[in-house]
Design a protein that fits this description.
By secondary structure, this protein is mainly α. It has one domain. It is 54% helix and 11% strand. The chain has six helices and four strands, in the order H-E-E-H-H-H-E-E-H-H. Strands 1-2 form a two-stranded antiparallel sheet. Strands 3-4 form a two-stranded antiparallel sheet. Helix 2 runs antiparallel to helix 3 and helix 2 packs parallel to helix 6. The protein is elongated and about 50 Å long. InterPro entries: Myb/SANT-like_dom. This is Myb/SANT-like domain-containing protein. Pfam families: Myb_DNA-bind_3.
Length: 149
């Protein structure tokens, strides 16, 4: 299993109360919950409010009582970086992602080389993408036009 798969399947999150592990299912539920709150309560161009973080944190603590708002914000920053890196790669000509097998193909080696030189932290995507359901959930959150920090 690649580094990216391990990272996305179980995320060890630093926080004021120590490290907390989120399973892939918890990560997916977190993203879906964020997307639901955003679609229900926010318009394009608005900013995610602290009271919404309280709602999300309370619901997530039902799945994992060790999660705090700081853990969830840290996880969201990680997701945001991965989503941006992967979306940037997918936008390049000569890059294909097979969602069924979660594998990456490149029209020629130079495509990967130029991307990796510009975005060295994108190395986990050399052969494997983000799990499709997590990628779709990330898109629902990050393409909604709501500022979240």
């Amino acid at each position: 299993m690649s580094t990216l798969s391990l990272t996305l399947l179980q995320m060890d999150l630093p926080g004021p109360n120590g490290h907390v592990v989120m399973t892939e299912e918890q990560q997916y539920e977190f993203l879906k919950l964020l997307a639901k709150v955003i679609s229900k309560d926010y318009e394009f161009g608005s900013t995610f409010q602290e009271e919404s973080w309280s709602i999300v944190t309370n619901q997530m603590q039902g799945m994992n009582p060790h999660l705090s708002v700081d853990h969830l914000k840290a996880k969201l920053r990680i997701f945001m970086r991965k989503y941006w890196l992967f979306s940037t790669l997918l936008a390049r000509r000569g890059v294909q992602w097979d969602r069924r097998t979660n594998s990456m193909t490149y029209a020629r080696p130079g495509v990967w080389i130029s991307y990796s030189l510009e975005h060295p932290k994108g190395y986990p995507f050399r052969y494997e993408g983000i799990k499709p359901r997590l990628f779709d959930a990330m898109r629902d959150v990050f393409e909604a036009g709501v500022a979240i920090d």
